[in-house]
Amino acid sequence: MYVLITANRNYSSWSLRPWMLMRALGIAFEDQIEPFSNPINYDEFRSFSPTGQLPALLDEGRTVYDSLGITLYLADRHEGVWPTDPDARAWAQCATAEMHSGFSALRNDCTMNVGVRVTPKPPSGALRLDVARIRELFAEGLSRFGGPFLAGDRFTAVDAFFAPVAFRIRTYGLDVGAGQAWVDHMLAHPAMQDWERQALAESWREESHEAELMAAGAITADYRTA
């Protein structure tokens, strides 16, 4: 069985991508959590990931690392990772690659924190551009392929890659226009709700992640229970 190593549910957006993909597609795996314990966890994580980062997938003596690398590896072995329709497949692969390499302002200014709600500070120009592009992408996917997922009527990798964005949109109250329908659909997905339940129950607090949250704006609600 696959072993998927991920970090904290509350903070780790990269971990959510393959975890969500495998759960939504019914790909069985052993779930191993290695929490962020320091601002830099390179040395600890190097014991199971050559980059010193998570997620990592262990399979048949192989270590498959990076959320995109894991996705491509699984796509060679399981149906449903990408849409079957050629147009939807091409669009989904491009959007997934765009998410993987871009949206740096969103990542930096709206740090992932599942359990809180924030009134954000006035957005930078870069963040406004990122949110506008997300709004455009979501509207395009839903209108071209009919929804309720981004590339059609079935969950695929592009939904997994934007799953952390769904949490960020809710946390910071970002306006994604017609794309809010996808956000609501994703947040209601059983796997997303399971991830959220685990996030709220976590007792871990990592200082640098909490500092990034405080810098992002004013916390208006904190639903973490531990």
Would you give an account of this structure?
The chain has 226 residues and is an alpha+beta fold. Helices cover 51% and strands 13% of the residues. It is built from ten helices and six strands; from the N terminus they run E-H-E-H-E-E-H-H-H-E-H-H-H-H-H-E. It has helices at residues 13-25, 42-45, 67-75, 86-101, 104-109, 125-145, 157-172, 180-187, 190-201, 207-216; strands at residues 2-6, 29-33, 56-59, 62-65, 116-120, 217-222. The strands form two sheets. Strands 2-1-3-4 form a four-stranded mixed β-sheet, with helices on one face. A two-stranded antiparallel sheet has the order 5-6. The two termini are 31 Å apart.
Topology:
Elements: E1 2-6, H1 13-25, E2 29-33, H2 42-45, E3 56-59, E4 62-65, H3 67-75, H4 86-101, H5 104-109, E5 116-120, H6 125-145, H7 157-172, H8 180-187, H9 190-201, H10 207-216, E6 217-222
Parallel strand pairs: 1-2
Antiparallel strand pairs: 1-3, 3-4, 5-6
